[in-house]
Amino acid sequence: MKPVKVGLCGLGTVGSGTFNVLKRNAEEISRRAGRQIQIDLVGARRDHADCNLTQVRLTRDIFDVVKDPEIDIVVELIGGYETAYELVMTAIANGKHVVTANKALIAVHGNEIFAAAQEKGVMVAFEASVAGGIPIIKAIREGLSANAIEWVAGIINGTGNFILTEMRDKGRDFADVLQEAQALGYAEADPTFDVEGIDAAHKLTILGSLAFGIPLQFDKAYTEGISRIAPEDVSYAEALGYRIKHLGIARRTEQGVELRVHPTLVPAKCLLANVNGVMNAVMVKGDAVGPTLYYGAGAGAEPTASAVVADLIDVTRALTADPDNRVPHLAFQPSHLSDVPVLAAEDIHTAYYLRMQVREKPGVLAQITRIFSEYDISIEALLQKEHGHANAPVIILTQRVREGLMNEALAAIEQLEDVLGSITRMRVEQLDLA
Amino acid sequence: MKPVKVGLCGLGTVGSGTFNVLKRNAEEISRRAGRQIQIDLVGARRDHADCNLTQVRLTRDIFDVVKDPEIDIVVELIGGYETAYELVMTAIANGKHVVTANKALIAVHGNEIFAAAQEKGVMVAFEASVAGGIPIIKAIREGLSANAIEWVAGIINGTGNFILTEMRDKGRDFADVLQEAQALGYAEADPTFDVEGIDAAHKLTILGSLAFGIPLQFDKAYTEGISRIAPEDVSYAEALGYRIKHLGIARRTEQGVELRVHPTLVPAKCLLANVNGVMNAVMVKGDAVGPTLYYGAGAGAEPTASAVVADLIDVTRALTADPDNRVPHLAFQPSHLSDVPVLAAEDIHTAYYLRMQVREKPGVLAQITRIFSEYDISIEALLQKEHGHANAPVIILTQRVREGLMNEALAAIEQLEDVLGSITRMRVEQLDLA
């Protein structure tokens, strides 16, 4: 069969990785795919020092790529929302298949993009958009397709996980580690997307749709970052047998779907708690398979390229397939997506870690526990640290409770005269793991 | 589209699980696959208490299933080699697609089966044959298809991992834990297949072929069980920062492919070391993606059914595909398999853990280390346990060395007058994980 011709838009980190992996493993890739997959045209504002571009056509205008009649598959690696959106929609309109690593684009514009692709009979593949080289989209969409998925929980931002790992291992504080992460190139100059959970929420939005067959609804994901985690919370969590991880969690409940990104205490013994540094990992719990976990590099030139190129091979294989029998973009047939609502933050159910500063005098704990009991919130553990000062921190772990109820209980407790300042809270998840 | 009709052969643990998962999740599965997947005919010697068979056709002769003109896909869940082989070959001859969970069948007869399927243009899917519900075959064959795979290392037998976990956690000995595993139903009355590594070698043979594009060569896999692991080795390993796991390892070297199943010391901090009880996990290292890991239940009715049903959905989708563009059975096009040889045991390179009993007197260690140095074997760590007796155990960790050379060095050391009895050895792997 004649080679498949690929047009590559963007020659940054992932673009150069994709270029080089396709070239280095060309022979092995042909042995797998049954035909050659060739980059024929590269659209990029500038060359990349790591790529030998002598054997490809080059253009400085990425829109040339999506219009080129020779190109079968367009790879979009420019990132961002607007130009990428226009580029991908033009590619689809021109009958090109698309492979993208762009999580923001899919999370925000995916519904429209997939509808357009469906109408044109082309594929849009996006494995690289979540958790880099880990084939998590394939695992959920195909590998676990027998299951009613119950929940997905993942460490899906390497920068955040690096910071939390350093905070725990070395007792350092957030700002200090962030600076190092920036120096190492793990964090951007403006780290907001990573540390405030926006990047993770993009990825979680995608995972949630694939798991539950709901349209992409990034605007409904609850998002909380890691910038306010204090070193003392890291060590109290440790003392209680937990570690703090920044998780994206999508859970199906009877009322709807929870979509939430936040710092989470997880049992120190579970595998997710032991995923360190910039690595990513996603757990998926299916009703038949039980808990499963997928681990690997969530970013970087070649790990991300691994997913981009795997998509190219999949798309190549499916070129001759009946469009109706392809794996649907969002795992479920577009005509059969579910309208189960994404729940508001107050309707999320989780257990809690709470830290409050109280006056060290008799009766304070009794007042606090009475309020919890009035709100029907069960306490799992209570730890009072004697400081020998007038004030002492009290740490409480609760059982699962609706967030709205917890908000009310905490407001009532914060009213107590002997409770000082506001209460620090973090969510706790057991993740069903022994 | 009209429903796909499935004929199920075998209604034991996995058969009943498959029946029930397909039924329970029927609606969700149709929403994914775009058509119904129905069990139409069940062939089994007896009914199963967990399955309501009122709405399917039944036969006591499994060969009726593979001959039935209504059946599109045959699911082989009878296990064993001979009848299963005949059944699958008959199904293929009759133009049926096949889904099987039978690792022994694929490891031993896979080459013939795939050749027959190729000729008939039918698919044989076998995700459930390795690591139960973990979609590891899909991950290697499709998810990591961009990579030159460097190695695969996995805990792929739950019984063995349960025994090793108990030995470590509770300081118990092998025979004692095996008895409990049998009582719990984790181990068979005749546990040979599990504890001597045969089951793991079947699975490893399959993983090795998928990773490196070589024909299945079960007879060339080196296999060593866990029945001779002593409690003291478990605790010495622990003291050195390692845990003992029964791993299947397939590694590509310049000389050929290593295929080996044996007890292995792995760093206590790495994720594989923290996979406990009956759970399975497989690490795959690709040149682009780096190390990745896949974790989940490796056995049991519904976890295995999860993989069987996912295969049914995949096969259903590919029914209308061009046979030449399907994912090849062994990951690479059958015309492009590699003839890289599987290496003999002597040509495997690993690091070693050694335990030997020596007379406690001056000069003994000097004699031992001189021999290692003569064979150019570097010592990584040496631990002498003072017992206050005349004899003391010496523990040595070496760096990587060719096994043939290690055999010679150990034979020389065992000749020393002050080294008593034979030397215990286990292999050590760092697995590239921080």
UniProtKB/TrEMBL annotation, chains A, B:
<comment type="pathway">
    <text>Amino-acid biosynthesis; L-methionine biosynthesis via de novo pathway; L-homoserine from L-aspartate: step 3/3.</text>
</comment>
<feature type="domain" description="ACT">
    <location>
        <begin position="353"/>
        <end position="428"/>
    </location>
</feature>
<dbReference type="InterPro" id="IPR045865">
    <property type="entry name" value="ACT-like_dom_sf"/>
</dbReference>
<keyword id="KW-0486">Methionine biosynthesis</keyword>
<dbReference type="InterPro" id="IPR002912">
    <property type="entry name" value="ACT_dom"/>
</dbReference>
<keyword id="KW-0028">Amino-acid biosynthesis</keyword>
<comment type="pathway">
    <text>Amino-acid biosynthesis; L-threonine biosynthesis; L-threonine from L-aspartate: step 3/5.</text>
</comment>
<dbReference type="GO" id="GO:0004412">
    <property type="term" value="F:homoserine dehydrogenase activity"/>
</dbReference>
<dbReference type="InterPro" id="IPR036291">
    <property type="entry name" value="NAD(P)-bd_dom_sf"/>
</dbReference>
<dbReference type="InterPro" id="IPR016204">
    <property type="entry name" value="HDH"/>
</dbReference>
<keyword id="KW-0791">Threonine biosynthesis</keyword>
<protein>
    <recommendedName>
        <fullName>Homoserine dehydrogenase</fullName>
        <ecNumber>1.1.1.3</ecNumber>
    </recommendedName>
</protein>
<keyword id="KW-0560">Oxidoreductase</keyword>
<dbReference type="InterPro" id="IPR019811">
    <property type="entry name" value="HDH_CS"/>
</dbReference>
<keyword id="KW-0521">NADP</keyword>
<comment type="similarity">
    <text>Belongs to the homoserine dehydrogenase family.</text>
</comment>
<dbReference type="Pfam" id="PF00742">
    <property type="entry name" value="Homoserine_dh"/>
</dbReference>
<dbReference type="Pfam" id="PF03447">
    <property type="entry name" value="NAD_binding_3"/>
</dbReference>
<dbReference type="Pfam" id="PF01842">
    <property type="entry name" value="ACT"/>
</dbReference>
<dbReference type="InterPro" id="IPR001342">
    <property type="entry name" value="HDH_cat"/>
</dbReference>
<dbReference type="InterPro" id="IPR005106">
    <property type="entry name" value="Asp/hSer_DH_NAD-bd"/>
</dbReference>
